[in-house]
Write a structure and sequence with these properties.
single chain; about 350 residues; alpha/beta; TIM Barrel; eight-stranded parallel beta barrel; three-stranded antiparallel sheet; about 15% strand; globular; glycosidase; Glycosyl_hydrolase_5; beta-glucosidase activity; cellulose degradation
Length: about 350
């Protein structure tokens, strides 16, 4: 009996013989950090802000891309995409993984794509936010569209797989646990059932605990109800775990003051989600706008263009991080008109903001 056999646990038959049987499926393996060419700091939480390893404040300012499945299908999943995003000045890319695409392609396919994303992002000193891109009620399994259908078990397994795969990889900086929880809320029914707040906290905390069993350096990012807009319940009952960041999706039509002015919109944001930045780090992981009648115009993203300057002023004042939706010519509100990367109105604005404020 060789050393390997001696160390095998009782009942562990994996790799006992060569072959293609299920018992020869390899055990999960972590990403090899030796493949990274650039030294990047682990971004951490200190009080209400993100900090680098020297303790200096750090703000994520970047953008969303489409799901890797879409980009591969269109021939756009390549290093040159990340290079172009670097030219735009982004220091973070949010990558949405849709449950339907996860099941279609399988875990190993996504590992291969996300391994590439980590290597490419690291080369350009860009961080990644990984987003489980579901919209709906995961407890009752009621969702806005079939592409978002998932389950508690699938969600937990996804995060267990990711936490093991990318543990201690600084480029993979943030895990957004659930994109947009959308349930009956504040007396308004939307056909997606309800979740008690204590149950939502239990969902978040159990996934945080699971992730930290593998990786205690990655930052968990959690959202509130109303399509990740309303953080007010966290004021009385925040996540009962340390070093957690909060997500918001404050699209322009979400704030509805009686008189629409900058002061009133700032006040509305303060009341519903921005107040969290007084005590915790906050990332607005989806922002953006398009003019009425423009490509992809729909509620809640329609705006006359005043949203961009207002939001970035607010973010700078509050110390907020942000990611624009979306660096893709098909999904709206889009930042680019085409794969020649011609900027849209919001694309040109946020490109200038990233280039001005991010240190590369």
């Amino acid at each position: 009996m060789d050393k390997k056999d001696k160390e095998r646990e009782p009942g562990d038959h994996a790799h006992s013989v060569e072959g293609s049987g299920w018992w020869n499926i390899p055990y999960p393996a972590s990403f090899d950090v030796k493949l990274l060419t650039k030294q990047q700091d682990h971004i951490a939480i200190d009080g209400k802000q993100f900090v680098d390893e020297q303790g200096q404040p750090f703000l994520f300012r970047g953008l969303n891309i489409a799901d890797p499945d879409k980009l591969v299908g269109e021939g756009q999943w390549q290093q040159s995409l990340f290079e172009e995003i670097s030219r735009w000045g982004a220091n973070v890319i949010r990558i949405p993984v849709h449950p339907i695409a996860w099941r279609k392609n399988g875990k190993q396919w996504y590992f291969d794509r996300l391994d590439e994303a980590v290597i490419w992002a690291n080369k350009y000193d860009i961080y990644l936010i990984l987003d489980w891109h579901s919209i709906g009620n995961v407890e009752d399994e009621l969702f806005q569209h079939p592409m978002y259908q998932t389950s508690l078990a699938e969600t937990r397994n996804f995060w267990a797989d990711m936490a093991l795969r990318y543990r201690d990889v600084p480029t993979m900086a943030v895990y957004e646990l659930f994109n947009e929880p959308t349930v009956n809320y504040m007396g308004v029914a939307n056909g997606l059932g309800d979740i008690a707040w204590d149950d939502w906290l239990e969902f978040l905390e159990s996934n945080i605990d699971l992730i930290r069993a593998y990786d205690d350096k990655v930052i968990p990012l959690v959202a509130g109800f109303n399509w990740a807009y309303d953080l007010r319940p966290f004021a009385k009952a925040p996540v009962r775990r340390p070093n957690v960041a909060y997500a918001a999706h404050p699209y322009p039509m979400k704030a509805k003051p009686e008189v629409r002015s900058k002061a009133n919109i700032f006040n509305a944001w303060d009341q519903v989600w921005g107040f969290m930045a007084d005590d915790y780090p906050v990332i607005a992981t989806e922002i953006g706008w398009v003019q009425a009648g423009g490509y992809g115009a729909h509620v809640p993203v329609i705006d006359d263009g005043s949203y961009g300057p207002m939001f970035t002023e607010y973010a700078n004042n509050k110390g907020l991080s942000w990611c624009v939706w979306v660096f893709d010519p098909d999904w709206g509100p889009t930042m680019i008109h085409d794969w020649d990367f011609t900027p849209t109105e919001q694309g040109a604005f946020f490109k200038q903001q990233m280039q001005q404020h991010n240190q590369k």
